[in-house]
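Moderator note: this is an archived Q&A kept for reference. The question asked for a predicted structure of one protein chain; the sequence and the answer are reproduced below.
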Amino acid sequence: MKAIHTQEQDNAEAIIAQCKICHIGLADTDGTPYVLPMNFGYSDGVIYLHSGPEGSHLDILGRNNKICITFSTGDKLVYQDENVACSYSMRSDSVICRGKVEFVEDLEEKTDAMNILMANYTDRKFTYSNPAIMNVKVWKVEVESFNTKSFGLTYKEYLKRVNQ
């Protein structure tokens, strides 16, 4: 049975729906961070990513499958007082998701995941050849936590959000 959506998850999903790119953060066993931008798909608490079958990121995930995924919207410069440098900020919303990567191996499940991923970018429907599906590495991340944050809100905007 699926957990009931929390307000934090609902807020996170609204932000994620506006994004076309996410940034993933991995940590090697010696603590070395590795961050890269990726395309993604999202459905019902699960983030799908895809990559080629080889690479440093896959080597790291083989040693530590924990992942942090960040989504961010907005890039509007705002300020409270144009003469006060510390009052400047960027108006944006962000989500940080944490989970563990599982690689999807079943061809039908991979196809479903690729359809979810492609739906984030186009309304077109696709078919995939078996060799193409077998060659792609599909990542499945069941989100364990959603954390949202808004930056650059005016005091009135902040109060409005807090009192919703």
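Archived answer notes: The two ends are 28 Å apart (CA to CA).
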